[in-house]
Amino acid sequence: METDIQIAQEAKMLPIKEVAKQLKIEEDELELYGKYKAKLSEELEEKIKDNPNGKLILVTAINPTPAGEGKTTTSVGLGQAFCKMGKKAIIALREPSLGPCFGIKGGAAGGGYAQVVPMEELNLHFTGDFHAITSANNLLAALLDNHIQQGNLLRIDPNQIVWKRCLDMNDRVLRNVVVGLGKKADGVVREDHFVITVASEIMAILCLADDIKDLKRRLGEIIVAYNYDGEPVTAAELNAVGAMTALLKDAMKPNLIQTLENTPALVHGGPFANIAHGCNSVRATKMALKLADYTITEAGFGADLGAEKFFDIKCRKAGLKPDAVVLVATVRALKYNGGVSKTELHLENLQALEKGIVNLEKHIENLHKYGVPVVVTLNRFMTDSQKELNYVKEFCEQRGCEFALSEVWEKGGEGGIELAEKVMETLEKKKSDFHLLYPDEMGLKEKIETIAKEIYGADGVEYDSTALKALERIEKLGFGNLPICMAKNQYSLSDDATKLGRPEGFHVHIREVYVSAGAGFVVAITGTIMTMPGLPKKPAADNIDVDNDGKIIGLF
Questions:
Q1: Annotated catalytic residue: which of 130, 301, 310, 403?
Q2: Is 105 a catalytic residue?
Q3: Which secondary structure element, helix H or strand E, spans residue 523, and what is its range?
Q4: Which terminal Cβ of the chain has fewer Cβ within 10 Å, N or C?
Q5: CA 405 to CA 389: how far, in whole Å?
Q6: 448-504 pLDDT per residue, tens
Q7: Is residue 332 annotated as part of the catalytic site, yes or no?
Q8: Catalytic residue among 37, 39, 55, 71, which?
């Protein structure tokens, strides 16, 4: 079997102008980035604004395991299947981060015969959106330190600076640094920190902003520090908004590429779901809904993170109402949750499957709390036995879910037709009654505890004293009505990554809380989660190279 990158490099891509014609987009409504990439123009957005919305389908998954689930692969394959059936469909995904690309995860463009292309360009520099976000973030940091150096008229307390620099790379040594060393002209000596670009508030702002006006409003509301009286200091007070917007102007426009089968794909924005809100941009999703009859989008990691934030942050803020959810699992991953080692997942083991399927059960229960119809799909592997497949099918149908097998990794769109037909059947016979998990007016602590108990299955929440003080301060500043963005490990429903399946009898530990006022949510950091990841002992970068003909190899 060829690798993902080999399959992608052999793809017969259409010029992006031809892909756009499927959506009735004219050439002058595109801003071309070579032959196979383009940004959608402001003129197109204005032209389609009165079009009726198509159906919105969210793809999510069980908690990720080393066995693999294939959420992005399913999203891409489902879009290809719709188009193969003659339906007008579009895929709306996030852009990959360089961090996982060179770290442990590899590329993030789907897999097998369900990929978006050009794969190498998407996984590397793409259209420069992440570079623009990184630059805008660090410009704000530079203006902040310069303001202090040049007299500090805003009376910023260097010990209460909350704005961090960022870099789109896994680099653990930058988590805690000291800046301003050297001569007096080199700045004020203070402790500083880096986050990965996908965790930057500017990434969240870009993904939640409706337009340039909204972008500027949100940028201006970013709290960068507190003054000596404990009052917030914003980016607007540093006169940073105009220059930041100039850097982000083009990055605000959604990117159009294609799948291996030439299905249109809007790929825009890329916050992680474990440390940020995990969804592609509101702008891309809304444009997709106006351009096609079916929009397939995804939310990062398991449904406890990505789907919860898609509903309670993105849909709340953007007024979106999903029509159906596809919940992705594999027999292998469920057996892993049941205690089977990675080397024995190919063996039939109904006992382990029965033990591990409780993880899927909890995600089904959680999704039903939002009133959206659920279709469970299994990414089928050759080693799955018919008894195992039948067991999962019966388990799901007993819990009010539709069920379909998916073979998109091996067969592309053709392997997703069963799933596409089941999704269409669900859309026709089950109307979505979408509602949020908690209201705006609920207190911040109550919101955190609602997520922990209802979604994670925790018995309660424990707070560090600094987190409790931060919650009190945030509510006094008038941000108590904002939704919560939980930063939690992706591997477990709990905040302990080693607790697989469906943990019980645990508490969630909140160690830090801060407000992202521009993004419009409050971040609660749990357990040992890091906003700047590190590289593994053997990073994926070890396998990446360029041959003498300029072809990239080893990128997944």
A1: 301
A2: yes
A3: strand 521-526
A4: N
A5: 9
A6: 999 999 999 999 999 999 999 999 999 999 999 999 999 999 999 999 999 999 999
A7: no
A8: 71
- Give yes or no: 190 in active site: no
Structure tokens at 134: 């990184």
Catalytic pick among 37, 39, 94, 380: 94
Q: How far is it, in rounded angstroms, from Cα 536 to Cα 274?
A: 18
The catalytic residue among 105, 190, 216, 321 is 105
Do residues 435 and 311 touch, judged by C-beta distance below 8 A?
Answer: no
Q: Assess contact for 301 and 274: CB atoms under 8 A.
A: yes
Which candidate in 273, 292, 307, 470 is catalytic? 273
Place of tokens 């709340």: 316
The DSSP line for 23-87 is TT--GGGEEESSSS-EEEPHHHHHHHTTSPP-EEEEEEES---TT---HHHHHHHHHHHHHHTT-
| pLDDT, tens digit (0-9, with 9 covering 90-100), for 293-319 | 999 999 989 999 999 999 999 999 999
What's the token pair of residue 509?
């530990």
Catalytic hit among 102, 194, 409, 521: 409
pLDDT band at 106 (very low <50, low <70, confident <90, very high): low
Q: What is the pLDDT of residues 56-71, one digit of tens each?
A: 999 999 999 987 788 9
At residue 352 the predicted structure's pLDDT band, cuts being 50, 70 and 90, is very high
301 is catalytic: yes
**Mean pLDDT within 31-57:** 97
pLDDT beyond 90 at 327: yes
User: Which residue among 126, 130, 381, 556 is the active-site one?
Assistant: 381
71 included as an active-site residue: yes
pTM (2 d.p.): 0.96
Active site residue 286: no
